Amino acid sequence: MTDSATTGHSFKHFTEKLNTENFATWRREMFTALSYLNLDQYILKEKDKITSKTDYDEKAKQTTNLIRMHLDGENFSRFVDDDLEEYKPKELWDSICQHYATKSLENAAKIMEKLTTYDFSVGDTFSTIKDFRSTFQLFIEVTAKKFDKTTVEALWIFWILIKLPTSLALFKTLKFSVFGDSKATFSMSTFLSELERELLRQAEPTATANALAVTNNQVKSNQPKQGNNGQRRKRRVCENGVHNPETSHSAENCHQLHPELAIAYHQAALDRINGAGINPKSGLSVNRAVTDAIVLDSGASGHYLRKKEYFNTFTPIDSAVFGANGASIPIVGVGKAVIHTASGPLEIAEAYLAPDLEIVRLYSGTCWYLGTCWYLGTC
C-alpha cells in the first residue's frame, strides 16, 4: 500500500483477494495490514468496548472498505450486504472467519485436500513451506478437539518427508532415524524450521578451495591416471534423478531412481553399527573393524570422500594429495558434506572428493597408521 493510500488518493492491495483457496494466508496478511494501520481493534472489539469513539465511524468505514477491497467477486457477494453504506467491520470479519474456519469435518476435508497439492520438489521451496505452514495451522485450528494434534502433526510430517526431492535424501534419512526413536516428539513448526535451515545450508556458496598437500606445480608433475586417449578417466555416476546405464549397478538398484533404496541403505548401515554394540558417543574411536562404519582420523590433513552423493555443495578442482606410501591421489572437487552415523549427522565443512581412494578394511590402529579413513558404503 502506498503512503497516500489512507487518504484515498491511491490504493494498492496488501495481499491477494480472498478466494476459496487462500484463506489462511489472506487472514494472516490482512490482519497484519490492519494492525499496521492501527485498525485491528475494529475487527476484534465491539463498538462499545473501543476506547476512542471520537472517530469511530470514519475508522469503521475505512476498515470495512479495506476488507471489501480484498474480496473476490464470489466472496464479495457472499459477505457484503446490499446496503453498501453500512459499515460493520467486526461483523464482516467474523462472518468470513466463521465461514472458512468453522470447526467442521467439511472444512477439514477441504483444507486437507489443499495440503496434498503442495509440491516440495518444484519451484520455490521456501514459498511452498511458508504457504504449507499457514494452511496447516488453519487445519489444526479447524480440527481442534476432533483429531489428536500430535498424531495429525506426525502423519503430515511423514507425508512431507516422502514428498521431498532426492537432493534432501540425507535429511530424510536423518529424520526417519530420529522419529524412529520411541521418545521422539513431533512438531510441524520445528520440522518446517529445520527443513528451511537445511535448504539454506545447501544454498550456501562453497568457499574457494585451498591447496592440499602440493602446489599447483607439483600437481602438474604428478598427473593422475589417464586412459588411452590421454584424457582423465571420467567417473560414471547417476545424478538428478536419472540412471546412468554406464554405471555398474542396474536401474532397479539405482538410488537416484529409487530414493527409498538410499534411505534403506543408510538406515541399514546405522543398524549395523548399533548391532555391533558401539556406544554412539564413542563411535569415532572403535577398536575393531566394523563394515560400513564411519571412522575419521582427527589428525588427518583433510577429509577425503570417494562418493559425490555425500556432498551438499560441490566445486570442481584439479589437485592431489600424497598417501603414506608416496602415491599421488587425485582430488577432483571440494565442498560441504554430510555423513550419517549412529550418533547423528556428521557435518564436514570442507571435504575433498577423491574417487580413486581404496576402501581399507583394517583395524582402526592400522588404518590410522596408514593415514587413511573408513567410509560409509561402497561405490
UniProtKB/TrEMBL annotation:
| Residues covered by region (Disordered) | 213-235
The residues covered by the Retrovirus-related Pol polyprotein from transposon TNT 1-94-like beta-barrel domain are 295-358
Which InterPro entries does the record match to this protein?
Answer: PolX-like_BBD (IPR054722)
Locations of Polar residues compositional bias? 218-230
Could you tell me what this protein is called? Answer: Retrovirus-related Pol polyprotein from transposon TNT 1-94-like beta-barrel domain-containing protein
Q: Which organism is it from?
A: Puccinia graminis f. sp. tritici
